[in-house]
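Shift notes (night). Ran AbrB/MazE/SpoVT family DNA-binding domain-containing protein while the centrifuge was going.
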Amino acid sequence: MSTRFRITIEDWDGDGAIRIPDQALQELGVDVGDSLYLIEEFVGTSRCLVLSKTPKIPDRVDELFGV
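Came back to this:
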């Protein structure tokens, strides 16, 4: 399942910051204080940032071979 949210980069004391909507946190099953990973992935030829509870998104080939 894939859910998309539009996130705006805001200024936070001179640094870029994002606010993660409550709905996104609920869908991930996380709360304030939990750790998340921001992973760079390619979808087709587009570079995307993915928010994940694991440090690496498994390769779909791994799923086919049970790795």
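The chain has one domain: 9-65. The mean pLDDT is 82.
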